[in-house]
Amino acid sequence: MLSVHGANPYTCLCPLPGPLAVPGQLGSIQDEIRDVVSVGILGASGEVQRIGLSGEGTDAVVILEKTPFQEEKIPDLLKKAMKAELQMQNDIYCTFYLSPPPELSEIKATVVYPATEKHIQKYLRHEVHLIRETWEDYQNITLPFIQSQSFSIQWVYNILEKKAETERIVHENPDPSNGFVLVPDLKWNQNQLDDLYLVAVVHRRDIKSLRDLTAEHLPLLRNVLQEGKEAIAKRFGVPGSQLRIYLHYQPSYYHLHVHFTAAGHDAPGSSVERAHLLADVIDNLAMDSTFYQKRALTFPLRADEPLFKKFQEAGKV
């Protein structure tokens, strides 16, 4: 049974919303886990709700997100009859709660099924701490931790080897040392540009994160920056000046990748404590080849993460 933590958890009898099809032998998610026993809120932030589902020995995580309005649909939203409930009126200001028709109120659902305990823990609410990692901390705490873990990134290799998502590739530079593949991130449904989100995954498999980068990697990073901007401008009509291009530290997986998001989109992980602008990274390495082997780096960790416990044990928190 799924354990639900955090503020205001709730449980209820609830089937999965609609038939959510997945390829292969699973058929539809609804058919596979229709015997849902309970639903619990794992976490929420703004327009995103993270939900845990429990059934007979099977857990799933469903992430529900309100998609941005599509500009061409706004006239329909205002013209069509819908339920409108007045919440507040004060002078010239009114607030209504609207119930638009289904075709104008889409919700994106990302499903992790079957979900392991690690998946559930990942999406649970937890306290967040900011860690200040020196190079010595990286060598003595972070790197040994990374090397001791069995992080599966086969899905990354499947993309690079054209075993999966080939139809989603926006651009590829096939050079094994200085090349990369650019694909839309799964968080972007590609229906509007407001929340544009793509990821460049490098072909090299020996670069785990920002900490490994030196001046040797400048040709690769410059290719990602320049070719990535050109490909997005060509395919989606968004100029480089309207893109936020950055790396995460710590990354969510240890194979170098670069995020491309719309500058106006408040994308997860784009805040100052985790995102490092690629242009700044390039400038730093051009000035000092070992910049990221010298400076301290700050990053957030949840209190339940094993790496946080390693920093705690070392007396660094």
UniProtKB/TrEMBL annotation:
Superkingdom per UniProt: Eukaryota
Keywords, in A-Z order: Cytoplasm, Hydrolase, mRNA processing, Nucleus, Phosphoprotein
Signal peptide as annotated in the record: none
Main location: cytoplasm
GO molecular function terms noted in the UniProt entry: 5'-(N(7)-methyl 5'-triphosphoguanosine)-[mRNA] diphosphatase activity; RNA 7-methylguanosine cap binding
Catalytic reactions of this protein: a 5'-end (N(7)-methyl 5'-triphosphoguanosine)-ribonucleoside in mRNA + H2O = N(7)-methyl-GMP + a 5'-end diphospho-ribonucleoside in mRNA + 2 H(+)
Active-site residues, as the UniProt record annotates them: 257 (nucleophile)
Localisation per UniProt entry: Cytoplasm; Nucleus
GO BP annotation list: deadenylation-dependent decapping of nuclear-transcribed mRNA; mRNA processing
EC number, UniProt record: 3.6.1.59
Top EC class for this record: hydrolase
Pfam assignment, any one: DcpS
Positions of substrate binding: 155, 165, 185, 187, 248-259
GO cellular component: nucleus; P-body
Family to which this protein belongs: Belongs to the HIT family.
PANTHER family: HISTIDINE TRIAD HIT PROTEIN MEMBER, M7GPPPX DIPHOSPHATASE
Complex and partners: Homodimer. Associates with components of the exosome multienzyme ribonuclease complex, such as EXOSC3 and EXOSC4. Interacts with NDOR1.
Annotated function: Decapping scavenger enzyme that catalyzes the cleavage of a residual cap structure following the degradation of mRNAs by the 3'->5' exosome-mediated mRNA decay pathway.
Protein name: m7GpppX diphosphatase
Provenance organism: Lepidothrix coronata
Name of encoding gene: DCPS
